[in-house]
Task: inverse folding
């Protein structure tokens, strides 16, 4: 425990105070890789819809660590033995689980880099930090990689009831002001237990689990997949793709050194040397926003228009449908726009496009949530619910969208 | 508007401030019949489980009126014409909708009086007040009786999304600290509209309605039908029945004048003259609690034991099952208790008994909740939900319970 | 730790969950003397002004115990050694600190019993419980009586920053909806430390302490000494005095056995035998309210009128002044009332009376709050404040009131 | 009223929903000048201390407008006549009151531009928008410039109890999690009235006003002038000064076009042509943060070091004192640092420096807060307080600070 350190307690509007549990954790938080998360928004462009949603991945990671401290406390009180080292491994694993996120993460994963997920990037960062901290992250990495012998530890970090979700649903609900997503994390954690090394929920927690699944579903359709956010995210994806196309063709676009690096070459998973990772570590929301601000004045009309739309919130219209939109309808709208603005069809496709979104409120697979009955038997939550029909909630819902500019 | 009155604004921990909208409403609140509700707990004996749950029907009625003011504001902003008089009728109807509740209401309806519901009693009170206020409650009474030509008005007072529910779910959630029941009343009200004189919800409100239905279901099983509250409520019912039996046999039990009146004669619906109503209006929680405190020392063992159990929170054990408990099991437990405490079988049946509880999260009947689509068509919320399966939620869930004393 | 007990966790709307720390504490909570506190309102008649204020001394005592658990945790983390036994003593001392409260406490102390404070009664109860629990309350009693060798322990139970105040200010603020009284208990507790066995506050806590003192002052003048509550409390005092006078003169008033006991004899401190205490332990708000309901129909006009006023909220008007009201003015109003209602002057004095209220936001005496500076020195908070002028706040403010009936 | 617009209601975590009151207001919000405020943090670098404090001036401006709507509603209900046009003028005046803020505002005012305050810049923007919107902002501008005949209107926008303060104190408290700064805006607004065209507070609001003044003082010393934020703000100021010095000497620093414009020439108030303003309007937090990210790798050690410190949160140590720090002490620390890092004394002065901070919780001048007594007379709040000693709070408190690097 570091007694004299300024940062040993952090104010949090949701939980009150977050305590940094150890010097190692403190030093990881102080590391520039982690401080970078202060400049990566948790909800991307959602603030264009919910003006309060400017909270960061930095804050979320601290919040998830706080919940992990509570979970450890609860499980220990129920007789689950968790050593001090294991507890610290859990704190580090959850703290760093998102460290691989880039700016406007999902946009990035599909434009700037290819074939590598943020989870894989998180692991690369953890390995680097493990070296720097003399192997002290071994345990956390094992948990993260699901190689830890105690299954529940991995489940606390990544599962259907992990501390990640319990924090982000609550935090996103708090900052957007969408109270329906407010999850009673404390109550859910109070009902966790471990049975045969797996994370389970006490039987009487059935209604809380149901409430959690419904709240999660609510947040997806109402917030994360909100039409306006969706349009904004697709536009970020489009503008980065366009920038990369132009760059690869030799055009020299204004951009920070780190962003230029990724615009000017194709980076696959295999290319992620520690040098590439070091450049990636310099990227955050600022690079993308600064680029948009410069590109607003560029003479490529796609680049400048999309930048303007994102900066001044002149977004696309969005239609949602249960059926895919027809090719004809899409083409018709594209051609109209192309003609009106004297663009090529390819250019028009940056402004008129379709796609699909999907969400599955509860995943029915090996990782189901189990209730621990008083007689010691387990029951799948999907079977235990009297009538909420969690099995139905486990179906993936797919919706289709069509984005196009407002008529002017 | 009464400008100089002290009570024109009331502090409310949930909504901030509640404003009394007119002098007539103010005078109704000041009336002893309404002030009586200050002494009737909203949640009966639930405070034995949730120590914060001491809020009253008085407070709930004010809260529901506050929400009605919001609803009128929202509907008017959407072009629904509601005159000043109609608005006041709505405020009065919701304010007085529960005025017929007696102490520990449901217990009472099945022991002290017979064949009359609290809604019928509310109507009796409203008629009395209407006379006293020179017919100014006509409109409110019509709404309450469903005789108002504008259907949505009745639905705002009594329907699946009425202001009563929107307040009590939120208020009970607030005072018990069971956050899962917290309903975003404001958001739901903001999405209300009127179509063909019926109350509807804007299409985008689908997730909020779902959330509301699940929250309601949660509160039922977790709070209102909580095992311990259930046992306490049954004990109140039992002790009152016993007291009435003894009284009718000529035993003179200590009790307030008003309570004695109802213990000493059988009162059916038809017996509710204005005199009887005036006596009923003097009954509240204090009468019952004071009686329990006196009966604790009575020589009838059933009376004294149950009183003691309720006052000192030595409640019964409760088992819940999806199947009814067998007659044999019940009898076996009764006999064991009877023998041990030297009671008659009839006396033992006050301590060992079974029953059933049921809840239906969403009622599928003429009063379904309808969504108003952008194209102006209506869609039943049960059909609109992608996968929550509201139809399933409309099945009535029945559970059985067995109560019996703890082993000593 | 009792693992299988239902009540080991209690829902609390303010702190989330309150955990019962040990079996002994659990058994004390289960004791009828403590359960009685469920029927004693924390704020007396204040619900006539703030309809949410129906919380009880039972709930407050649990809340204060919760804060004590936090304080122990914080102090231990700063190196203050507190044994398991000492911690339990602290929990018990704070849990039982208010167990001697009677119904509408302050009214009672000046009417029904004489010369004995609720603190003295609490001690009597603790001694009784200590016997029943085989001396296990010795430590708690020592702390309560200030005989514990470690001064800070007593200060945590009773001092300017004790857990009692930190809970009741927050709780009363929560239930009344008067947010200005909301004290950040968690932040204040996080800044506690122990120096030379005395409770101190870390230097950087200066603004929080100031905020606490101002919040406390706010609650006094805005809530606890609210004109309407004041009038109500004086009326309770008056009606009990009248009832006692009549009883001592031989009039037989309807009242519960326990209340009759105290109405029919003068009980001084010296009279508090364990028998008397046992009768006192049967008194709670229900006895007084039930009496009011019976007295409403009594033929003594003072008794019946005041009862009616309290039950139907037809309270007195109140004027507040910095100067005492003149004897002439008082007499004039009394005479007018006497004549109008055909009363004696003595009877009129129950309806027209004056008195004074006072509050001292910060007490300057041996028990000042001290800040612990980084250099290890102490500084009186009254001296440390740049300009809030805590010294001024330590002056006792006295105000005078005149109560009289509304003109009819 | 625009009925079909998506943005007519905005979610706000604090007030629930904010309604856009008119089409003109809506169009102003949509304007790029206003959208720019989405990229200007309300609390500058404070998020380095309070990780939740990422809310923007955009959100604050909407919040202040919401409170203005409430204030108009309250005043009208008390008989103050406010026409629809006047109400809209008030909404626009408060909405745009901060539109002239640049990135990290206070730093900017003292480095990039000279002799012009953000209020003056706000006025320049308003004039520009007034032209664009055909003179419809005349009324708002008059209020802002204090030229409106009705004094209270200006006071609602800029005074000791204006909607600006009532929102930012509450909002900053909310997002930092420092609950002591939480101001009950709703209660304060409910007590506003107008007397002789001046804004006054009802007499019974005295404690709320006191509470507000203390909360404001608390936020200053605990949050706005927090040592770490202070050091960060001074470092931003330093790095911008350094950049400007280097630029004026001919060094070509990486920076956005807009930032370069201001780095490469001295801009006084008189220089603010509409062209200059247009460039200023392109500046926001992104420009400064992007510059820091580029300068981190610059070969000027001052530029690169400070950038690194700000980005990776390796801030200076800060000492606070009631007395100024001596020149000797300052020089001594500077020399030590200069020698150790092989810098010039001038360069060292960017890392070791002193300054002063001051705050005045209540301003005693013509703009005092007045209470309206029941007899219609006014009373200065500073005189009305029994003992809080608001006069003392009106003294300006000055503190001195010394910043210097941590020992390595």
Result:
């Amino acid at each position: 425990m570091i007694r004299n350190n300024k940062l040993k307690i952090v104010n949090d509007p949701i939980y009150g105070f977050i305590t940094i549990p150890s010097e190692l954790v403190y030093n990881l938080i102080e590391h520039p890789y982690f401080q970078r998360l202060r400049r990566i928004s948790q909800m991307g462009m959602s603030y264009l819809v919910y003006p309060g949603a400017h909270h960061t991945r930095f804050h979320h990671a601290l919040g998830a660590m706080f919940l992990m401290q509570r979970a450890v406390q609860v499980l220990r009180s129920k007789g689950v033995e968790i050593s001090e080292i294991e507890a610290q491994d859990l704190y580090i694993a959850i703290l760093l689980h998102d460290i691989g996120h880039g700016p406007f993460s999902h946009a990035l994963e599909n434009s700037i880099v290819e074939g590598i997920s943020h989870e894989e990037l998180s692991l690369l960062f953890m390995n680097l930090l493990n070296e720097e901290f003399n192997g002290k992250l071994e345990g956390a990495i094992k948990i993260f990689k699901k190689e830890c012998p105690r299954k529940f530890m991995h489940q606390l970090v990544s599962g259907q009831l992990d501390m990640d979700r319990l924090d982000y649903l609550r935090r996103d609900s708090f900052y957007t002001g969408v109270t329906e997503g407010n999850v009673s994390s404390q109550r859910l954690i109070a009902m966790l237990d471990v049975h045969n090394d797996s994370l389970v929920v006490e039987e009487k927690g059935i209604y809380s689990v149901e409430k959690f699944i419904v709240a999660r579903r609510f947040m997806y359709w109402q917030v994360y997949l909100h039409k306006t956010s969706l349009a904004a995210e697709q536009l970020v994806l489009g503008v980065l793709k366009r920038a990369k196309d132009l760059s690869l063709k030799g055009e020299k676009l204004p951009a920070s050194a780190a962003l230029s690096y990724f615009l000017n070459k194709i980076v696959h998973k295999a290319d992620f040397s520690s040098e590439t990772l070091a450049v990636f570590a310099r990227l955050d929301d600022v690079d993308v926003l600064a680029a948009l601000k410069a590109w607003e004045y560029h003479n490529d009309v796609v680049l400048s228009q999309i930048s303007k739309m994102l900066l001044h919130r002149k977004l696309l219209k969005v239609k949602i449908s249960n059926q895919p939109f027809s090719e004809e309808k899409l083409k018709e709208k594209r051609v109209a726009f192309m003609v009106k603005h004297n663009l090529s069809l390819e250019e028009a496709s940056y402004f008129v496009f379709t796609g699909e979104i999907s969400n599955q409120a509860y995943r029915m697979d090996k990782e189901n949530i189990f209730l621990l009955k008083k007689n010691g038997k387990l029951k799948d939550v999907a079977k235990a619910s009297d009538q909420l029909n969690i099995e139905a909630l486990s179906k993936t819902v797919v919706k289709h969208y069509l984005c196009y500019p407002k008529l002017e």
